[in-house]
Design goal:
The structure holds 2 protein chains of 2 kinds. Chain A has helices spanning 13-24, 61-73, 136-144, 161-172, 191-199, 257-261, 302-319, 327-341, 348-357, and strands at 2-9, 29-32, 79-82, 85-90, 96-100, 103-114, 118-120, 133-135, 153-157, 176-182, 204-206, 208-214, 221-226, 239-242, 245-248, 252-254, 266-269, 274-277, 290-292. Chain A is of the alpha/beta class. In chain A, 50% of the residues are buried. By secondary structure, chain B is mostly helical. Chain B has one domain: BFD-like [2Fe-2S]-binding domain (Arc Repressor Mutant, subunit A). In chain B, a hairpin with a 4-residue loop joins strand 1 (6-8) and strand 2. In chain B, helix 1 packs across helix 3. Classes of the chains: A alpha/beta, B mainly alpha. Chain A binds chain B through residues 1-2, 86-91, 97, 99, 102-106, 119, 121-122, 124-129, 212, 253, 255, 257-258, 260-261, 266, 268, 270, 274-275, and chain B through 1-2, 4-7, 9, 15, 44, 46-47, 50-51, 64-65, 67, 69, 71-77, 79-80, 83-84, 86-87, 90-92.
Chain lengths: 360, 92
């Protein structure tokens, strides 16, 4: 059995920031990630971030993960990194089981932060299992991490930020984007991203859905159809689009299975992407000393995941007896940053979802 | 929608299979998992469970909010029994 003060599961933006925050408070931190390289989804984000300077606005995602890793290195005497390690279970007594290099590892921390992020949602339509149909995030990993183009032509399903950004990056990689469709009546992503792809000649069709995929061994055609006001397909509006790749980008759900295993109370909250954990203002779940940060607590953006990470790392460390010298000041600052990120009409949905998981 | 649409890739279950089960009275994710193995393959329900919940909600008229997710147990992915057995050395 391996003992530590704080185990953090997931080394993406939330996990890295939690680790920095807890290690700077004096806690011994064990950071576990299933990949070779830490940074989570940041390592494939080649676009510049929005937000404010505190969340590294105008920097590219992969640069942000390097900045965070450098910051973590300042506390290296308090940090152990277990990469290439997949967590298998989180038990009621707080024991974590994991596997690294075909070895079974057992870990007993005083507290745990779950920062496992989210997974891509899927769609049900005929032949949705044909090769050539990917999640948009998977395509972004193929291109930006492994340098592999997914095909020649792409139809993007979903005009949220991920769909729009991945479309742009596909074009940068020399792939033709034949169109972006979305079932909603309005483009979900930022208009600045939408305008960029529109200027490059990509049509964005709202109120459209996939009717079926067609192909023998791999994807050859996609039939799309227009939706009426009740989201039902309108007969006779079908169009056939020839393409060898279709990317599905219809949202993310919290990757919350470890929380369910540990017995944390969960709730279906559509505003947060699906089944999310109940938590208090310190991001502690209903199970003592199990904390959450980032998308697993409710799907938002990398900027809020980072601030949540800093806040949760601070609170988890305090809970087990490592209070940062500027605890109150930092806590207030992180709370204010989160409030600013979630302010205005854009944050309405998130605020409503958070009220539900906090029982407000 | 074509009822041959695959809902659970791990156990090869179609939309028709899922609809038949719901109409036979298996109206929770847990029951459907136990009778069909949906959610017990390599993906552990990460792909199929949201689709099945939506289908239960559509047929029974219950809000997804009121439907129970199924029990989630370790391990999150396949692991050899030998690996677990060899891990006994780290017991204390």
């Amino acid at each position: 059995m391996k003992y530590t003060d704080l185990a953090i599961i997931g080394g993406g933006p939330a996990g890295l920031c939690s680790a920095i925050s807890a290690a700077s408070s004096g806690a011994k931190v064990l950071l576990i990630d299933r990949n070779e390289k830490l940074g989570g989804q940041l390592i494939k984000q080649t676009h510049m971030f929005f937000g404010s300077e505190k969340q590294y606005a105008s920097k590219r995602g992969f640069n942000i993960s390097e900045i965070l890793l450098d910051k973590l290195n300042d506390y290296k005497e308090n940090v152990e990194i277990l990469n290439n390690t997949t967590v298998l279970g989180l038990y009621e007594d707080g024991v974590i089981t994991a596997t690294k290099d075909e070895k079974y590892v057992k870990i007993k921390p005083k507290a745990t932060i779950i920062a496992t992020g989210a997974s891509e949602k899927v769609l049900a339509f005929p032949n949705n299992d044909l090769p050539g149909i990917y999640g948009a995030g998977a395509v972004q990993t193929l291109m930006n991490v492994y340098g592999i183009r997914p095909g020649k032509k792409v139809l993007m399903i979903g005009a949220g930020n991920i769909g729009l950004i991945v479309s742009y990056q596909l074009m940068q990689a020399g792939v033709e984007v034949v169109g972006i469709i979305d079932a909603a009546p309005k483009i979900g992503g930022y208009l600045v991203h939408a305008s960029k792809v529109r200027r490059m000649g990509v049509p964005i069709l709202t109120r459209y859905t996939v009717k079926e995929a067609i192909g023998n061994d791999t994807l050859e055609k996609v039939v799309i159809s227009k939706l009426d006001e009740n989201w039902n397909p309108i007969e006779g509006t079908e169009e056939v689009i020839e393409t060898d790749v279709m990317c599905i980008s219809v949202g993310l759900s919290p990757l919350a299975e470890l929380l369910q295993q540990a017995g944390c109370k969960m709730m279906y909250v559509p505003e947060l992407g699906g089944i999310a954990p109940l938590r208090n203002e310190n991001y502690e779940t209903t199970v003592d000393s199990i904390f959450v940060a980032g998308d697993v607590a409710g799907v938002e953006e990398a900027s809020s995941a980072m601030v949540e990470g800093y806040l949760t790392g601070l609170c988890a460390a305090e809970k087990i007896g490592f209070k940062h010298e500027n605890y109150l000041e930092l806590k207030k600052d992180y709370r204010n940053q989160l409030e600013a990120l979630r302010s205005g009409p854009v944050g309405t949905k998130i605020r409503s979802g958070i009220n539900k998981v906090m029982g407000v | 929608m074509d009822n041959n649409t695959i809902i659970c890739r791990c156990s090869d279950l179609s939309l028709q299979d899922i609809r038949d089960l719901i109409n036979d009275g298996y109206t929770s994710l847990e029951e459907i998992k136990r009778i069909s193995r949906a959610g017990m393959g390599p993906c552990q329900g990460r792909t199929c469970s949201q689709l099945i919940l939506r289908e239960i909600s559509r047929i029974t008229g219950k809000d997804i909010h009121d439907l129970q997710p199924c029990t989630n147990r370790p391990p999150t992915m396949g692991i050899k029994l030998k690996t677990i057995a060899d891990g006994r050395e780290s017991n204390d």
